[in-house]
Amino acid sequence: MLISTAYAQGAGAGGGFDLMALAPLVLIFVVFYFLLIRPQQKRAKEHKEMLSKIRRNDRIVTNGGLMGKVAKVNDDRDEIELDIAENVRVKVRRGMVAEVTSKGEG
Prior knowledge:
Number of domains: 1
Largest sheet: 5 strands, antiparallel
CATH architecture: Roll
CATH topology: SH3 type barrels
Helix content: 25-40%
């Protein structure tokens, strides 16, 4: 006889829960949290705090690259009036301020 008979082998262990298979996913999440998520939340908190402390005569830079001196802060509409040149005043949304370069007097 040229063909041998194939017999079914006994069933192995059932597909139980394996904690070691889940460990790499947990490790990846922890690394992402400490390297990406946590620093971004810290930067967002610092930026929000900086925006709340903007006062008249502060020198600021906007996200669009405009540099100027704060002429008026309108908290009701969340806007800042910015002097960018002599007799040139623009309105900027408070959230569009990238940084405060120097604080004004008082």
